[in-house]
Amino acid sequence: MSHQASRERMLRALRREPADHVPCSFMSFTALRRRCHEDLYQLVLAERAMGLDSFLFIPTAPRPERLDHPDLRGLPVRFAPEVSVKEWREGAPDGAVLHKEYATPAGKLSTSVRLSDDWPHGDHIPFVDDYQVPRALKPLLTEVRELEALRYLLTPPAPEDIARFREEAQKARAFADQHGVLLVGGWGVGADMANWLCGVENFTLLTQDQPEFATALLEVIHQWNVERMRVVLAAPVDLYIRRAWYEGCDFLMPRFFREVVLPRMKAEAALAHEHGALFGYICSSGTLPMLDFYVEAGVDVLIGIDPVQGTHTNPELMKKKAGARLSFWGGVSGAVTVELGSEEEIRAAVQKAIATLGPAGFVLSPVDNITIDAPQTWRNIEAFLDEWQRRR
After folding, report:
1. pLDDT value at position 250?
2. pLDDT in tens, 40-80
3. Positive or negative: CA dihedral 147, 153, 159, 163
4. The pLDDT of residue 349
5. Range of 53's domain?
6. Which end of the chain is more exposed for a tag (fewer CB within 10 A), N or C?
7. In a domain, 105, yes or no
8. DSSP strand E in the chain: where?
């Protein structure tokens, strides 16, 4: 097979079609992104210089610009103009608590967070964020009656945000075409948003004890998510990604997933396909019992196959069960193997990932991220890439 451009190679892998070789595209590469000063265009160029099959993600707004949703990439999250927000601190420095209150026409929503030494947001509590969940003394949502107030915090994309995105999308499409790389959009979100709003343990219990509340919340999120999807899909993008780290069987029972999550995923995957985009789903743990649901939903690629840290992520069984209907992206633990492992361990992990999940329908990547910018990390990445080039 003749040499293919990176974009074509990636598309073939995501469609489970023969490619000239197994592509390698890092899901996330924070260590390199920081060296590129959070500029995703420069990140693509740096990754391509390393031989990676990079992709450009839009919108490209970096984390420091997403003060109210640092862990939710994508379009800005805006509140209705009628909403007023108040934040304040109480207590001594060694036991301080931050409070936040949203006043909406449908009532008030409030949350409180106990500060820790590693709290990264100063005197600010983001609307949704991983850091606040384990530190929350009171999550934002606790009762079904609060859903009407939540609607004022989950508003459709503002006209100025749509205009700004369309302008960026033109630039991004031209850049992606020039450099032959995949154009990716997102993120969609479902139960991850519910976990941020309610707390992880609380939402897991709600799905069993108050399924009507959990279902109604996911429907509010779904409606909001679809409106955001339409804007991004119109770019157009090659692949649309939904983040779902908290949707595996570690957090949701398969029955609840089938009855509540699956129908909404089907609608979102269908919307992506209507716009000519593939539909990707990031979940790095608890996925094996859900594979049939992903296929039924219309997911094209499951992103985040971690054989070390993920539970229920047996690559051999996953490939055997769904490899003819689903592509896989990942295969090697980033935090354990690539950042901390020996050269021999890294090479063995790459060999096994390609042999097990490849060659067709597979994109090799550390899972989920490479964050440590240290000499050992870069030496290990060199070994990772060298072994990929030998085995691809």
Report:
1. 94
2. 999 999 999 999 999 999 999 988 899 999 999 999 999 99
3. negative
4. 98
5. 6-78+152-391
6. N
7. no
8. 55-58, 84-90, 97-104, 107-114, 136-138, 182-189, 239-243, 278-282, 301-305, 327-333, 362-367
Question: Which residue type occupies 139?
Answer: P
Task: Round to whole Å and give the CA distance between 300 and 238.
Answer: 12
What is the Cα–Cα distance from 309 to 360, expressed in whole angstroms? 24
User: What residue type is assigned to position 122 of the chain?
Assistant: G
**Which band of pLDDT confidence, cut at 50, 70 and 90, is reported for residue 391?**
confident
Sort strands 84-90 and 97-104 into parallel, antiparallel or unpaired. antiparallel
Q: How do strand 182-189 and strand 239-243 relate by DSSP bridges? A: parallel
C-beta separation of 81 from 87 below 8 A: no
Residues composing the chain: 392
pTM: 0.96
Tokens at residue 208, please?
């069993």
Token pair 């992709």: residue:
55
Residue pair 216/144 in contact (Cβ under 8 Å)? The answer is yes
Does 104 reside within a domain?
A: no
Amino acid sitting at position 53: D
Neighbouring CB atoms inside 10 A of 112's CB total: 18
- pLDDT tens for residues 118-157? 999 999 999 999 999 999 999 999 999 999 999 999 999 9
**What is the separation, in whole angstroms, between the first and last Cα of the chain?**
13
Cα–Cα dist 321/101, whole Å: 47
Residue 65 maps to a domain: yes
**Residue 56 falls within a domain, yes or no?**
yes
Q: Which two tokens stand for residue 146?
A: 């609060």
Residue 332's CATH number: 3.20.20.210
Question: Cα angle vertex 234, ends 263, 158, to 5°?
Answer: 90
Residue 2, both tokens? 């003749």
Express each pLDDT in 305-346 by its tens digit: 999 998 999 999 999 999 999 999 999 999 999 999 999 999
Number of domains in the chain: 1
